[in-house]
Structures are given as structure tokens and as C-alpha cells.
């Protein structure tokens, strides 16, 4: 990656025509900030070109339109009947919900936000790199159709940085769907029930941007932090309550609110299609509720088109890295009690390397949905009438959501560190913690992997003008919280022992190792999307023990189906995914492909075994969960019971040496297994109550386990239509 | 409609007097129920009445063979480079239109230096020799009904006015044309022709005014039988007027302008005024479910007809009485209305007439934007107080209308115009690129008209509308009849265009207008059209539950190798967009062959089955083989 040394000022930007700027060219927006006044920046003239489709309206007008909408009228009547209350009462409640939710874009607060972010970013990051061509395209797109900004979600800093960039480059700042768990989870979408129960803990600690200024705030929910909430609200964020799946009125207000913003082109809308911040840095299965809301105005002809702009944010080092690992283990971080301010100050003292924000090509929903949705289906009923989306609409929304996440993946930049993490994790854990990995071996292998990644079409963030060894050394230095390099070897760093000095148990030791491994794994996960398809072909070849193409593909298909909650695969694209994976493997001379055969070349063994090893921790974890589910005692269980039980089983297996990967302790992967089994209707809900109880079909679980280990050939896994690949 | 007011007043008087003389002759004729006598008589009249008909048998005598309307009337750029409208027939005739050149250059990027002239004359050698069914021709000869195999006659009846049809003619390209043209003079002539056609297995295609815009008159290329165009233009008499019940019994070949003129002479009108009324015929209206601009007062064609007589291969279909409404199973008129010439020939129609309105007043309202304008029309419809006509043009059409202003005679008028513009844009803050205008036509007695006018203007004011004068209103209606002539001018300078329509529920009007216009613009761009197209619409009719929307679309095709193909693709996409936005396949143009592909989705498979089974019963041999609709 080349960093341009041009110092593009926003004014200069406008005169740069699209074709002059290389698509790959990223500009460090902090450079300008380091050379001129932050106050001047915050108080510069902000005059973006807005959407030209409709005259602009005020926040008050917007809210009025929402409350007076026919849709909310229908809903209020319906809810009033159900609840036995009066329509007026329901409407009053709706007004309250809207007030709590609605954003209130104010330039003054955007300036304050701009100033704050300037200050903070310069301390945290060495650079914030943005592709200018992407910004140019965005600026154009915003004038033409309602735009939906769709960033991936890796840190709490994500949406601030995006608003900051848009402010800097005179592009209308978006209204942002901000909130916490379940916020994108509509009543229409039941797929990820198991996946949404983590306690998303937003305290000052994890959010240095907010806590520095409002250090005394110690509230659990973002909107609850009154001051911060207000600042964010006035910078364009609107807040979404947790657990709204069941609250019909809340859902109705939210959906009408979002749709009205899209219909009127009030401002770009920004939301995280992944729903949550990814704790694993791996893309999450998209949530469809919000996606459906922003697409519906197009489906129903209320706008000519909607433009989706995927945004890929990549961090060299994530602010929340250690918190994430602990959350994954389901254990609180030790010594959590220190004040938010202290912790935040600590965060601010660290170096987080650079950050890349890649604005993807604007996608026309109209273009993408051609042949996928028949808009005539809305002709015979009032469009405002509350209705369940049709299977066709749901499939289309799901497909688009998956597509966007894939584009986010492809647009993200892969760091040298991520490649190193892949290799690092393939060494036995004892080597990492005790003997250390030979530095020379690691660097040589990393350069080999760099070539492979490039063969697979990766966007690498590998500085060209710096010697390779220095690049790798500085990567390791940046991540001294995880690895330590001494005497030609590299070691995994485990957290300091708790102050009590009492001897730690074997379990505690395993957890400490696991925390470090999971941190490392999340950096590996940053590049997993690049390798996962070829890795599945490699695994299929290995387990199916055949060269016959028509036997390898079913296994590949089986893996994609089983791991659909783990990795992002676009529904209905398995054959192309397989072809593409084979193409890449052929390109790097690992395999030879003919009409009937897929044969592994001698040179290919190294590639294939690397790829298999990449997938192995996941396969092992799935098998551990399968094993738990098949245990005698387990008949029906709740999620609350199952996770600790799986964790205990995995710990036992690790300590006994039967299981090698500490990644099996990741609650995220464990939940994904349950989600997959729910999707495949092997685990079914047995009781509808506060505590969901699940029943498991043990024979089916055993069968899948046997397929996965190659004992029996893969059979099609039958899931409910629409969610299948 | 404009043609009423067309021509100078002295012209009008002269023509009216002449008509009156002839009509008096008709009315003195004893009205005899015996059709045989009538039939015998109708033939005798041919020579007598020939001179007074607007439409002669040889249409080429007064009409263009490869463009719209009268041969003497057209737009052209004179030596000074100014646009001029020739002839004497219309209000705009003989006038200079100073703004048109700039508008054409600005809107389409057209250039007066770049001409795309039409082939000047029709060469008979370009026309395929006729396929003659000798036995049929022999028997027709014995009936004495006039017919022709002449190439020009046949070409004139082989097309409507779709863009691709006119474009091909201008290039001198002639496809399959009828092999023979026949001019029945009355109902009984038609009965004979249909009998002979069945006997000899000849394909019959009824021809009325030839104003179709649905490819309805295109000869099916796969048709191997002899195709006979049955031209109804000579069946054009008002057979009687019933002043007690206010009905008139009329032969179906009469064209709109003759019908209105003749009725006016007796102090009546039908009030049915489709934009094509100068040339379109009563039978054509029935066969396509036509709609007139003043339907708010008089109703659409289905509301106007009391009795229809149609000749089918199975015989004549008609009702036994003239009751104003019946509960006698499905209304058989509705098999006929919209049948598009696939079941038979409509020969005679009894329709409602009204005393001529005492007072007419045009009007117009300027709105700050199209959204407000639509909201106003919706409110007018809700209050059921729509004037005879109310139409809302979008901003592009407003500008278009403006470009068609004839040269003003006095400095004072232009000064006034300037003041008006200043008032609306500067004082009222209307954005010139957003404002739009509604044109109005009120009819009735003077007092009521003024009262009605106030009511409508009061509603308009609630939506930010400003009254903008009678002149603007009248000019708006003028646009509808000159637009077809303008298309010919465009085609001389690489600009091709067309109009199409739909009907749509009220809540979707704005969405459909925006989306269809945007779709046209995008499709043109995607297909390599170099200049942004003219993509504009107007709301032309209001109903309780929705409105009729009319789109115009035109573009400069320089640089395109297959302009008509591009045009057709764009029109197809626009229709898809209409349907996806909840619009109908057609409000009044009909289906023809152009929109056939969407019929099944439109009426459901069972609906298609019903229509097919009617066709199979009525016309098992497919004598009426124009292949429209189904």
C-alpha cells in the first residue's frame, strides 16, 4: 500500500476528477490535522450538496410526518385493540418513543464532535487513511438517491470516525442507528435467536472517546449517558432500545422513522448490517430487520432507487481488543472496578497504529434487485398496511445483506499482522507460550503467505517502501500486548497474574492462555474471508479422500451449509464460490482442475495444509459442541445452561490433551453452532417462555459429526427454505 | 377542445353554414326503420355528401402519408430560423413561435444544421403487390360496394401513429399492408362484407380514424390470407336525434370533429373530446374504450353509449331496448367496448347528447411544485368538484408550453408577461425549475361556472396555487393537438418521441410520475443516448379513486445506429416501471399488439380464458384477424 504524500485539502478535492485519483490511493486525513488548527477545522464552512430529489425538511417536520403516517395510524389502532387501551394513549406513547429515539442533527454539535475526534484520533492513531475516490463517488451518489452507509462494526469508534470524515469532506453527515443488542432484530427475522443474548456492555471504559470528556459517566446504555447521548444525538445518532423484538409499537415507530428518512432523503442513513460489534473481528451474519426497513421504500416504489455504500473499516489494532477476548470467554475482565477515566487514559496512552476506511462503490438496489423482487406484489393492498414481508422479499433482503457484508470483507485491508497471526496460531500452543516461535521461521512463512494472499486477490496493507523485516518487526511491536519478541523468538503474552499472588488453578491457567489465543485469533479472523473458500475446498479434498470433482463439491457444499453462521456466504452462490476457490488454488499452482478431477500438485501440499489448519479450530469446536449435545444427560437445555457446560467440557478436553485448540472456549463460536443447528432444525425450541428451552435431535447431530469427520458421506442438510444456501 | 375553436371565425362561420345546409337535407329525409330501404338509399347518397366529409375515401387528398394530420399543416423553421406553424386550420396556424428553436436546442441538443428529412414521396414499388382472393373480389364487385387495390390506399391503412410506424414510413420502408381496402356505406354493406369474408376466408381489419397508438392496425406478418381493410369512414351520418331522450343514433365511422360540429348545428354536443377527436372515429372509441378530456361532465365512452350495433361473423349483436341501465347478466356492451376489432365491426351507436354549454371558461393555476399540484387535484377529486377538465403539467411541460407561445403583437403584452413572471418567481418565491401549472376548463351556465371557478381556486390556494389566467389555460389545451405535429418537426431534426398513459390510485401518483420519468432518463443513458431525454408527465384525468397520468418522452438520436430499437426498449422499460408502480396497462390507448405481452398478468389467466372463449365463439375462423389484445 502506498501512502500518498499529497496533502489534499477539501477544497482541492472537489477539483480532482474521478479518473485522476487511483482507486487504491488512500489519503491520511490526520496529516492535515497535524499541520493546522483543529478549531479552525471544526469551525470551517460546512456546505454539503444534499440530495436533490426533494426539498429539505426539518427534524420537527420529519417527526411530524412519522407520527401522522398512515402506517402508524393502522398500528396504533391495532395495538390499542390488543392492549385494551385507547388509540390516543397508544399515540402518546408513540410520541414518547419517537422523542427518545429521534436524532437532532445540529451543526454546532457536529463541530464539537469534529474537534473532539481530531484531538483523540491524533493521540490514538498514527494515521486514518481514506480512499478519496470512494468519497468522490459517495458525494455524487448522495445527490442522486437516498444513500445508506453500511460500515462493518469493529469498534465503538467506527461511526464517529465516519461522521468525522464526511464532515471534513463536506458530505452530508448521516443519521445513525445507534444502540445495543438486538437493535436490528425484527419480528420478521427469527434466525439468530441464539445469537443475541450477550450482554453488550457499553461503559466509559471501552469508549475512550466519550469517557475522556464525560469521565464520571458510568452508565450501561449509550443513550443513558445523558450528556454523551445528547452530543451523539445532535451529531445525527438515533437510539434504538435493546430487546425490541417483542415491543410492537417500538418496532412500528422505528420502522416508520427509518423509512421516512429514506423516503424524504432527509439525510444518509447509517447502520451496521451485522447488528453488533463483532467481538471476533470476523464478519457477523447480517441482521435483516433494519435492512428491510431501508429497502422497503424501493420495493414499494416510494423512491426510484436506494444506494447502498458498503464501508470497510480496518484497524491495525482494535481499541477494545482485550475486552473482546474476555467477553468471548464469558468471564469478566479482572480488576474491572477501576474508574472509567483511569482506564480510558491508559487506552489513550497506547499506540493503535493506523486505521483504514474504505468507502466502497455505491450499489444501486434497483439494479441489484432486478429479477429478484416483483414490485407488483404491493399493488393490491395499501402500501401503509402493516404486513409481514413475503418470502420473496425476505430472500431478497437476506441476499442483499449478505452481499454487502461480502463487499465489506473484500474492501477491508489486510495487515501484515493478520497474516502473521494466521501462522502463529498454527503452531502448538505450548510452543507459543513456552519455547517460543523462531522469528526467522515466522518471517519467512509470512512472506510466503503474503504471496498466497496476493494470489487470492487480497488488498494488503503492506508498506512498500519499508524493508519487509522492518514491517513485520513493527507489527509485532505494535501488538506487544499479545506477543513478545526476544532472542530471535516470539512468545504469546498472557495477562499478568492477579495481584493476590495465590497459585492459579489449571482452569484459570487455561483461561489466561485462551484469552491471549482469542485475541490473536481475532486478528487472524481479519483475513479469514480471503482464505475460507479455498480452505473449504482443501478440507473437502482431504476428508472426502477423492479427486473426483462431483464428490468434492457436495462436501464443499455441506461445509458451507454447516458453517453458514460462522462465515459469510452469499445464499445461492455455492457453485460459483467453489469455482472461484478452485480458480485461486489453480492460480497458485496448488491444484489442477479438469472437468472431472481435482488433483493436488506436490507443491500444493504446503498451501493445502496451511488452509486446512486455518479451518481446523472451527471444525474442532463444532465437534466439541456436537459431543456435548450428544452426551447422555442432555435432552433439553437453555442457552444459559449450555454455554457453561460446553465451556467445562472444552476445558476438560484441553487439559487432558485431547483437544488442541483453545478457540473452542470462544462463546461466539459455540453460539454459532447452536444457531446453525437451529437453522437446520436439528435443535428446536421446545417451550416458548422467558427462558427459551431447546430440544436436540441427537441422531441428526451425530450424523453431522460423522459427516464432518468423513465417516459417512455428506447428505444435504435440510433447513427451512429461505435461510438455506 | 381546440379544434372547436380552431380556424379564424369567418372560416368557422362559412363552414358552419355549409354544414347546416347539408344537415338540413339529412334531417328532412323521412326516417324509416326499414334498413333495406336505408341501405339502398345510403348508396345513392355517396356522391351527394362526398364534398362535405372531413375524411374522403382517398385520405391522401388531405392528409400526410408519413406524418400526423393535414397535409397543409406543419411546423417548420423558416429562412430566418424561426419556427412557424403553417396552414389555416388552427389558432396557432400562420404564427411565428419564437421560443421553439431555443427550446428544441436546449432540451434535446438538437441543431438546425443537422436534418433528418423524410422520404418525400411514397413509391408504389416499395409496396408488396396485393394477395388477391379472386372469388371474394368477384362477389364484392357484384354488391357494388367500392373497394381498391391501390398501393397508396393500402399503405394509408396499414399503420397507426406509433413512433416505429411513422419512422418506418419516413424512411420509405413499407411492411405487410392490407391487400385491399373496402368502403362500406352503411350497416348492411358491412353485413354483406362480413358474410363474404367468412365465405371466402378473408381476413378483415376494421379501420376507423387510423389514430391508433398501440400497433393495432399493423398487419400480422404471419397472416397468409388476403387482408381486407374495412374502412368505416364513409359511414359517417347522424341517422337521427331524439330530443325527448337526448340521444343520437350515429354511424360508427363518423370522426369526432364532424360529430360535434353536426350536433352543434342542432344545438347539441356529446361532450366526448379525446385529444385525437379531429381524426378518430366513434367506432374506434367504442373498440378501444376511449376517454375524453371533459369526461368529468359527460363521462367516458362507456358512460355515453346507450346502444351498440356490431356485425360479427356469427351475426349482428345488439340489445333490444334503450333502457338507461339493465340487470340482464354481464353487460354485452362490455364484450364490445375494448374489443379492438377482434370480434367484429361496430356499425351504429346510440349515444347520449347534451345541450351545448351556455358558457365556457378556461383557467390556470400555478403551483410551487408538482407535489402541491397533485395534492390539490386529489382534494378537488375528493370534494367531487372537478371542472369539465383539470390537468396538471409538470415543470418540463410547463416550460414546453411556454416555448410554444406565439409571437406577441404588442410590447405591452410582453411587458405584462414579464411582470407576471417577476411576481411569481420573485415576489412569491416560486422556483422556476420546480413550479408547475394546472389548466382548467369550466362549462355550464355562466353563474354556475363562476361559482365553480371560485370553489376550485379556493382549494388551489390552500395548496399554494396562484391563479395564472385564462390564456395559460387555453394554451395548455392547444398543446394536446399540436404535439403530434411537433413530433414530425422533431423527426426532421433527429428527435423522436412518443406519449403513453396509465391510470393509478391517488396515493401512487407522485411515485409513479417520479419513477417512470427517472426510469426513462436512466434507460436512455444506459442505451447510449447522448443527450438527456425529455421525460415529462401530466395528470390528465381525476377519478374518485385515482388519476390518469400521461407521459411524454423524446430524445435526440444522433449517434445511435438503431434509434427505433432503443426507443422501443425504453418504452418497454417505462411500461414495466408503470406496472411495478401499481399503474394500469392502459387508461384509454388500448392494448393492440404493442402491450399484448402484459395482458395475462393484467387480467389473470382466467380472465384471458374468458376473453378467448368469447373470441372462439364469435369468430371461430379468426376472420377479424388483426391479432390485437389476446
Automatic annotation (TrEMBL), chain B:
Principal subcellular localisation of the protein: membrane
Positions bound to FAD: 206-212, 288-291, 340-346
Pfam families: FAD-oxidase_C (PF02913), FAD_binding_4 (PF01565)
Pathway annotation: Lipid metabolism; Glycerolipid metabolism; ether lipid biosynthesis
Record: residues binding substrate: 487
Known role: Catalyzes the exchange of the acyl chain in acyl-dihydroxyacetonephosphate (acyl-DHAP) for a long chain fatty alcohol, yielding the first ether linked intermediate, i.e. alkyl-dihydroxyacetonephosphate (alkyl-DHAP), in the pathway of ether lipid biosynthesis. Catalyzes the exchange of an acyl for a long-chain alkyl group and the formation of the ether bond in the biosynthesis of ether phospholipids.
Keyword Transit peptide: yes
Record has Translocase as a keyword: no
Cofactor: FAD
A biological-process GO annotation: ether lipid biosynthetic process
Protein name: Alkylglycerone-phosphate synthase
Domain called FAD-binding PCMH-type: residue spans: 174-356
Membership in a protein family: Belongs to the FAD-binding oxidoreductase/transferase type 4 family.
Active site: 550
Keyword list, A-Z: Acetylation, FAD, Flavoprotein, Lipid biosynthesis, Lipid metabolism, Membrane, Peroxisome, Phosphoprotein, Transferase, Transit peptide
EC number: 2.5.1.26
Residues under site feature: Important for enzyme activity: 391
Signal peptide range in chain numbering: none
Record SUPFAM superfamilies: FAD-binding/transporter-associated domain-like, FAD-linked oxidases, C-terminal domain
One GO CC annotation: peroxisomal membrane
GO molecular function: alkylglycerone-phosphate synthase activity; FAD binding
Location within or outside the cell: Peroxisome membrane
Quaternary structure and partners: Homodimer.
Catalyzed reactions: 1-hexadecanoylglycerone 3-phosphate + a long-chain fatty acid = a 1-acylglycerone 3-phosphate + hexadecanoate; hexadecan-1-ol + 1-hexadecanoylglycerone 3-phosphate = 1-O-hexadecylglycerone 3-phosphate + hexadecanoate + H(+); a long chain fatty alcohol + a 1-acylglycerone 3-phosphate = a 1-O-alkylglycerone 3-phosphate + a long-chain fatty acid + H(+)
Amino acid at each position: 500500500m502506498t501512502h500518498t504524500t499529497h496533502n489534499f485539502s477539501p477544497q482541492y478535492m472537489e477539483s480532482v476528477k474521478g479518473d485522476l485519483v487511483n482507486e487504491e490511493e488512500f489519503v491520511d486525513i490526520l496529516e492535515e490535522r497535524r499541520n493546522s488548527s483543529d478549531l479552525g477545522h471544526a469551525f470551517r464552512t460546512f456546505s454539503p450538496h444534499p440530495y436533490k430529489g426533494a426539498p429539505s425538511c426539518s427534524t420537527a417536520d420529519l417527526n411530524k410526518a412519522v407520527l401522522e403516517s398512515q402506517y402508524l395510524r393502522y398500528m396504533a389502532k391495532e395495538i390499542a385493540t390488543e392492549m385494551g387501551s385507547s388509540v390516543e394513549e397508544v399515540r402518546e406513547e408513540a410520541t414518547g418513543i419517537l422523542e427518545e429515539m429521534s436524532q437532532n442533527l445540529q451543526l454546532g454539535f457536529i463541530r464539537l464532535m469534529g474537534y473532539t475526534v481530531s484531538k483523540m484520533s491524533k493521540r490514538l492513531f498514527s494515521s486514518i487513511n481514506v480512499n478519496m475516490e470512494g468519497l468522490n463517488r459517495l458525494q455524487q451518489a448522495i445527490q442522486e438517491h437516498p444513500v445508506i452507509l453500511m460500515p462493518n462494526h469493529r469498534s465503538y469508534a467506527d461511526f464517529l470516525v465516519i461522521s468525522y470524515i464526511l464532515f471534513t469532506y463536506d458530505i452530508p453527515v448521516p443519521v445513525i442507528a445507534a444502540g445495543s443488542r438486538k437493535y436490528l432484530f425484527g419480528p420478521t427475522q427469527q434466525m439468530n435467536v441464539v445469537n443475541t443474548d450477550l450482554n453488550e456492555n457499553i461503559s466509559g471504559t471501552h469508549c475512550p472517546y466519550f469517557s475522556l470528556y464525560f469521565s464520571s459517566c458510568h452508565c450501561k446504555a449509550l443513550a443513558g449517558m445523558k450528556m454523551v447521548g445528547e452530543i451523539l444525538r445532535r451529531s445525527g445518532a438515533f437510539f434504538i432500545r435493546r430487546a425490541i423484538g417483542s415491543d410492537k409499537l417500538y418496532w412500528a415507530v422505528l420502522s416508520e422513522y427509518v423509512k421516512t428518512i429514506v423516503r424524504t432523503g432527509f439525510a444518509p442513513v447509517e447502520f451496521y448490517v451485522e447488528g453488533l460489534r463483532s467481538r471476533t473481528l470476523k464478519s457477523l451474519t447480517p441482521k435483516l430487520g433494519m435492512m428491510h426497513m431501508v429497502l422497503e421504500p424501493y420495493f414499494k416504489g416510494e423512491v426510484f432507487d436506494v444506494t447502498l455504500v458498503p464501508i470497510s473499516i480496518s484497524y491495525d489494532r482494535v481499541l477494545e481488543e482485550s475486552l473482546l477476548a474476555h467477553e468471548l470467554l464469558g468471564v469478566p475482565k479482572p480488576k474491572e472496578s477501576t474508574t472509567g477515566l483511569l482506564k480510558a487514559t491508559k487506552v489513550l496512552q497506547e499506540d493503535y497504529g493506523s486505521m483504514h476506511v474504505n468507502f466502497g462503490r455505491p450499489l444501486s438496489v434497483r439494479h441489484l434487485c432486478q429479477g429478484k423482487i416483483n414490485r407488483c406484489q404491493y399493488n393490491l393492498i395499501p402500501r401503509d398496511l402493516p404486513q409481514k414481508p413475503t418470502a420473496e422479499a425476505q430472500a431478497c433482503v437476506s441476499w442483499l445483506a449478505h452481499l454487502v457484508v461480502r463487499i465489506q470483507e473484500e474492501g477491508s485491508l489486510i495487515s501484515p499482522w493478520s497474516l502473521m497471526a494466521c501462522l502463529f496460531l498454527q503452531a502448538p500452543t505450548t510452543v507459543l507460550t513456552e519455547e517460543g516461535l523462531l522469528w526467522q521461521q515466522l518471517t519467512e512463512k509470512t512472506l510466503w503467505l503474503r504471496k498466497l494472499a496476493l494470489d487470492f486477490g487480497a488488498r494488503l496493507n503492506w508498506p512498500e517502501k519499508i524493508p519487509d523485516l522492518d514491517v513485520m518487526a513493527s507489527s509485532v511491536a505494535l501488538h506487544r500486548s499479545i506477543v513478545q519478541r526476544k532472542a530471535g523468538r516470539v512468545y504469546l503474552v498472557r495477562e499478568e497474574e492477579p495481584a493476590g499472588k495465590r497459585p492459579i488453578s489449571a482452569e484459570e491457567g487455561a483461561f489466561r492462555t485462551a484469552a491471549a489465543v482469542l485475541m490473536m485469533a481475532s486478528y487472524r479472523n481479519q483475513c479469514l474471508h480471503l482464505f475460507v473458500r479455498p480452505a473449504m475446498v482443501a478440507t473437502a479434498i482431504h476428508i472426502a479422500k477423492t479427486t473426483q470433482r462431483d464428490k468434492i463439491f457436495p462436501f464443499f457444499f455441506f461445509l458451507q451449509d454447516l458453517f453458514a453462521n460462522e462465515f459469510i456466504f452469499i445464499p445461492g452462490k455455492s457453485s460459483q464460490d467453489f469455482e472461484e476457490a478452485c480458480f485461486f488454488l489453480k492460480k497458485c499452482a496448488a491444484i489442477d482442475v479438469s472437468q472431472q478431477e481435482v488433483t493436488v500438485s506436490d507443491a500444493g501440499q504446503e498451501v493445502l495444509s496451511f488452509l486446512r489448519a486455518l479451518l481446523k479450530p472451527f471444525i474442532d469446536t463444532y465437534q466439541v459442541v456436537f459431543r456435548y449435545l450428544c452426551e447422555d444427560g442432555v435432552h433439553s437445555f437453555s442457552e444459559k445452561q449450555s454455554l457453561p457446560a460446553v465451556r467445562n467440557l472444552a476445558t476438560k478436553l484441553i487439559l487432558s490433551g485431547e483437544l488442541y485448540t483453545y478457540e473452542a472456549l470462544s462463546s461466539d463460536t459455540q453460539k454459532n453452532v447452536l444457531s446453525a443447528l437451529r437453522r437446520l432444525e436439528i435443535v428446536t425450541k421446545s417451550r416458548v417462555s422467558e427462558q427459551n428451552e431447546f430440544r436436540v435431535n441427537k441422531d441428526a447431530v451425530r450424523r453431522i459429526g460423522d459427516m464432518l469427520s468423513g465417516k459417512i458421506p455428506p447428505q444435504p442438510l435440510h433447513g427451512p427454505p429461505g435461510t438455506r444456501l | 377542445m381546440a379544434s372547436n375553436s380552431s380556424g379564424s371565425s369567418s372560416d368557422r362561420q362559412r363552414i358552419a353554414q355549409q354544414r347546416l345546409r347539408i344537415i338540413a337535407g339529412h334531417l328532412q329525409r323521412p326516417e324509416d326503420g326499414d334498413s333495406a330501404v336505408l341501405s339502398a338509399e345510403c348508396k345513392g347518397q355517396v356522391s351527394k355528401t362526398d364534398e362535405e366529409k372531413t375524411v374522403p375515401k382517398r385520405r391522401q387528398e388531405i392528409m400526410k402519408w408519413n406524418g400526423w394530420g393535414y397535409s397543409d399543416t406543419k411546423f417548420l423553421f423558416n429562412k430566418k430560423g424561426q419556427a412557424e406553424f403553417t396552414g389555416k386550420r388552427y389558432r396557432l396556424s400562420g404564427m411565428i413561435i419564437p421560443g421553439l428553436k431555443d427550446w428544441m436546442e436546449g432540451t434535446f441538443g438538437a441543431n438546425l444544421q443537422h436534418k433528418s428529412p423524410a422520404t418525400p414521396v411514397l413509391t408504389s414499388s416499395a409496396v408488396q403487390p396485393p394477395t388477391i382472393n379472386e372469388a371474394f373480389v368477384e362477389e364484392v364487385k357484384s354488391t357494388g360496394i367500392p373497394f381498391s387495390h391501390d398501393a397508396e390506399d393500402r399503405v394509408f391503412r396499414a399503420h397507426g401513429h406509433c413512433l416505429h410506424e411513422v419512422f418506418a414510413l419516413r424512411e420509405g420502408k413499407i411492411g405487410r399492408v392490407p391487400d385491399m381496402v373496402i368502403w362500406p356505406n352503411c350497416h348492411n354493406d358491412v353485413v354483406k362484407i362480413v358474410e363474404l369474408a367468412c365465405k371466402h376466408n378473408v381476413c378483415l381489419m376494421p379501420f376507423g380514424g387510423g389514430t391508433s397508438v398501440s400497433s393495432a392496425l399493423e398487419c400480422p406478418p404471419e397472416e397468409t390470407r388476403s387482408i381486407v381493410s374495412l374502412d368505416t369512414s364513409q359511414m359517417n351520418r347522424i341517422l337521427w336525434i331524439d330530443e325527448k331522450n337526448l340521444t343520437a343514433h350515429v354511424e360508427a365511422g363518423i370522426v369526432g370533429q364532424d360529430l360535434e360540429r353536426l350536433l352543434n348545428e342542432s344545438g347539441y354536443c356529446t361532450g366526448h373530446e379525446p385529444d385525437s377527436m379531429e381524426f378518430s372515429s366513434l367506432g374506434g372509441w367504442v373498440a378501444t374504450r376511449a376517454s375524453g378530456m371533459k369526461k368529468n361532465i359527460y363521462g367516458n365512452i362507456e358512460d355515453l353509449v346507450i346502444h351498440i350495433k356490431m356485425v360479427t361473423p356469427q351475426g349482428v349483436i345488439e340489445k333490444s331496448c334503450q333502457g338507461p341501465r339493465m340487470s340482464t347478466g354481464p353487460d354485452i356492451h362490455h364484450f364490445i367496448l375494448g374489443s379492438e376489432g377482434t370480434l367484429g365491426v361496430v356499425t351504429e351507436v346510440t349515444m347520449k347528447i347534451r345541450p351545448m354549454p351556455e358558457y365556457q371558461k378556461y383557467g390556470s393555476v400555478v403551483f410551487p411544485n408538482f407535489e402541491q399540484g397533485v395534492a390539490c387535484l386529489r382534494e378537488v377529486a375528493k370534494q367531487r368538484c372537478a371542472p369539465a377538465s383539470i390537468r396538471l403539467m409538470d415543470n418540463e411541460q410547463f416550460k414546453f408550453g411556454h416555448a410554444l407561445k406565439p409571437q406577441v403583437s404588442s410590447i405591452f403584452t410582453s411587458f405584462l408577461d414579464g411582470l407576471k413572471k417577476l411576481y411569481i418567481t420573485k415576489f412569491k418565491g416560486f422556483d422556476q425549475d420546480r413550479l408547475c401549472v394546472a389548466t382548467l376548463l369550466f362549462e355550464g351556465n355562466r353563474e354556475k361556472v363562476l361559482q365553480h371557478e371560485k370553489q376550485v381556486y379556493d382549494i388551489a390556494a390552500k395548496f399554494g396555487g396562484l391563479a395564472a389566467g385564462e390564456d395559460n389555460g387555453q394554451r395548455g389545451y392547444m398543446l394536446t393537438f399540436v404535439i403530434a405535429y411537433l413530433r414530425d418537426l422533431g423527426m426532421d431534426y433527429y428527435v423522436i418521441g412518443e406519449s403513453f398513459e396509465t391510470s393509478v390510485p391517488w396515493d401512487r401518483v407522485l411515485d409513479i410520475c417520479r419513477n417512470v420519468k427517472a426510469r426513462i432518463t436512466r434507460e436512455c443513458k444506459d442505451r447510449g443516448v447522448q443527450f438527456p431525454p425529455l421525460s415529462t408527465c401530466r395528470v390528465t384525468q381525476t377519478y374518485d379513486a385515482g388519476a390518469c397520468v400521461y407521459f411524454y418522452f423524446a430524445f435526440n438520436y444522433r449517434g445511435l445506429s438503431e434509434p427505433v430499437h432503443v426507443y422501443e426498449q425504453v418504452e418497454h422499460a417505462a411500461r414495466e416501471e408503470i406496472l411495478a408502480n401499481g399503474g394500469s396497462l392502459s387508461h384509454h390507448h388500448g392494448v393492440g399488439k404493442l402491450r399484448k405481452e402484459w395482458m395475462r398478468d393484467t387480467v389473470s389467466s382466467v380472465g384471458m380464458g374468458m376473453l378467448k372463449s368469447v373470441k372462439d365463439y364469435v369468430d371461430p375462423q379468426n376472420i377479424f384477424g388483426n391479432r390485437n389484445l389476446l
